[in-house]
Amino acid sequence: MLELKRKIYERMLEWKNIDKGSTALLLEGARRVGKSYIAEQFGKQEYKSYLLIDFSNISGQILDVFENDFTDYDIFFSKLSVFYGVRLFVRESLIIFDEVQMYPKARQMIKHLVADGRYDYLETGSLITLKQNVEGIVLPSEEEHLSMHPMDFEEFLWAMGDEVTVPYIKECFEKMRPVGEALHRKIMNMFRQYMLVGGMPQAVLAFMEKQTGLNGGYSICIATMLRNLQKDMRVKSWLFLMVFHLSFPNMKRNIHWPPFRKKHVLENMKMPLCGWMRQ
């Protein structure tokens, strides 16, 4: 399977080596930017073992462990270890709370889990629902936040097997030296390719494997993004949906679009519109 090198990995490694379990790391960002992927890669490469709990697809048995066994850490960790078939090693294992916004109580538990000190903890969460699903819980001060974004141009070139172009561009910039007309054309062609493919890892992987097939990858990304935006009725989201609806009519077959009746839209954005315009 193809792997993608991401810059955020080095910052995650700094957290592990500097904090040494004194905080949990929360990776936050838009959907489909690669948070779950990089979290699992980090667990595989930097720890003796890792345990990933996906709260977007969790069984009632696991939730029962969180609800009823959390007060006894020995039983709590033992049951998780058995359920997932993963042996946990003190100070050598990572526990990942994936899509933690789906179960906000897990974030509240982080304070006590970090204080217990047996393992490291890494959370991933999608921005819109992560900020909304905080009612009734105490957010832990023991969280260190890292924002994750789509792949930039250099990361895209890494995926294409090119690790020399960007350092050369930086060298030319620092020395105020032109790159040359022929090389400039080559770099601009690569940049146009990046602008076409974009920085969503799923689309980049599709491009790497087939050099085509971008529509399928982006249809999934866009559909996921739209489902999340439909939950957020603020004016910016509605305006974005309306523009997207008009700009990509051919995608209607693959994406469930919300109704764009004028009355419905105006009712939902009447009050936010005034505040947004003032900003």
Q: Can you walk me through this structure?
A:
Helices cover 56% and strands 11% of the residues. The protein has 279 residues and is α/β, with parallel strands linked by helices. Residues 269-279 have low confidence and may be disordered.
Spatial gap, N to C terminus: 46 Å
Which residues sit in consecutive blocks of at least 5 with pLDDT less than 50?
269-279
Main sheet overview = 5 strands, parallel
Mean pLDDT level: 82
What's the number of helices? 13
How are the strands ordered across the major sheet? 2-3-4-1-5
* Rg over alpha carbons: 22 Å
Topology pattern, helix = H, strand = E: HEHEHHEHEHEHHHHHHH
Q: How much helical structure, as a percent, in the residues?
A: 55-70%
Strand % is 5-15%
Outline type: elongated
Helix-and-strand structural type: alpha/beta
Tally of DSSP β-strands: 5
Summary, kept brief:
With 279 residues, the protein is of the alpha/beta class.
Based on the model shown, name its key terms.
alpha/beta; 56% helix; 5 strands; five-stranded parallel sheet; disordered C terminus; single chain; 279 residues
